[in-house]
Fold this protein.
Amino acid sequence: MTHDLNIQSPKQDNRDTSEQGFTFIELIMVITMIGILVSVALQKMITTAEKTELIAEDMTIDTMRSNIVANFGSDLLEGKAAKFPDDPFSNLAKVPRGYNNLRNTQPTGEDDDSDIWVFSPSTGSSALTVQQSGTTITSFTVTGNIFHQRKDNTIVKWPYDGNSGVIGRKVVAVESPLRQELDQEKRARGETPQGEVPVEKK
């Protein structure tokens, strides 16, 4: 009479633990890699949103410049006394989103003024050099400033000369803390901040 003994060796009971899952170090590495990928993707999304806002901003100013010249030319053709507008937002077929025609003061930099457009007339006349105005006009007299507060609360402005109907170059009036931090990180990496323009000296 024979008995079949089903005896397993201890080696057969001990399964290879390395095939059961990740080790702690492997988990840490995976989490770190995911964090890096997410931060890169987030930065790309922020950069895309910034580019879109900058393009829309520049298009708005270009539209205003064209409108000023077109209205002046139209008045000349109709035999009217042609005059450049005191407010460059005058007679726009479509005003930019966020334009407040009841306000004439610079944006505050607070969230309440996010994406606001304002024209602020100058209380006194100040002259800009060719380099400061970014134009070829040697006698650029600032009769007011166009202000736009971006979504990151950075405030940019364009000087306006109502005597010649010319809008000067863009200048950063107030840079938001977030923008300062992001730009500083980019410069530390040797990159040029997106849409970098002159910062107004106080």
User: Anything to note?
Assistant: Residues 102 and 108 are 15 Å apart (CA to CA). The chain has a mean pLDDT of 83.
